[in-house]
Amino acid sequence: MLALREDGAREALSTLCEIYWTPVYAFIRRSGRPVEDARDLTQAFFTAVIDKGHFAKARQERGRFRSFLLSAVRNFLSNEYDLSRTQMRGGGRVHLTLDFDDGEQRYARQPADTLTPEEVFARQWAADALDAALDRLDARHRAGWMKDSRFYDPLRRFVLDEPDESYATLAARLSSSEGSLRVMLHRMRQQFQVALREVVADTVQDDDAVDAELREMLAIVSRGRLER
């Protein structure tokens, strides 16, 4: 989880940062930086773009935030950002708290030495967006949707993946009918799709752009299982 120690408009950017800091970290790691340098560079990158207002500019221009961020981190690294000139070890106006242990674990689950930094960035973006959508689905559940259903927790893990057992076996284990489970899981997946669309819509300009991002995400998922 990332926390922004700023108020006002910058606080509204926390959701974008939560989705995108791990793809940036994965990009930097796959670009050849060791763990400690990647941590410092990720922190320095987000501090710089937030402090300079680049996030707000990207949203005002209503472009694809993912494309903006990938271009920005490429430029950041190509300029050979001097870590000794950053304020990460001595203060600064913006402070970010990043769970780098979790970020490294996520990066380590990516296929070794087979993907470019851009491909790692895209895969991590897709995985984190799916996780964010699941979080929103859980929030709907806590707010009342299926709140009293004993089936939400057992079926949640099948929202993204087919059950590893037959529906008949699952129904017997949960003391339900196969048909009822299929209907409930279908409804959960529909709600998940709504949540995923909301997550993506936070980062693009219009419905057409949302559809394009979702198609790209589907293509990434279809090219190989995402480790989340």
- How many structural domains in the coordinates? 1
What integer value in Å does the Rg equal? 20 Å
Task: Enumerate the strands of the largest sheet in spatial order, edge to edge or round the barrel.
Answer: 1-2
Listing every helix as H and every strand as E from the N terminus to the C terminus, the arrangement reads EHHHHEHHHHHH
Please characterize this protein's 3D structure.
This protein has 228 residues and is mainly α. The protein has one domain (3-222). Helix content is 63%, strand content 2%. The chain has a two-stranded antiparallel ribbon.
Please give a handful of descriptors for the protein shown:
two-stranded antiparallel sheet, elongated
What's a concise summary of this model?
It contains 10 helices and 2 strands; from the N terminus they run βααααβαααααα.
Question: How does the SSE layout of this entry go?
Answer:
Layout: E1 3-4, H1 14-30, H2 35-51, H3 54-61, H4 65-78, E2 96-97, H5 100-108, H6 117-143, H7 152-156, H8 167-173, H9 178-201, H10 207-222
Antiparallel strand pairs: 1-2
Helix pairs in contact: 1-2, 1-4, 1-5, 1-6, 6-9, 8-9
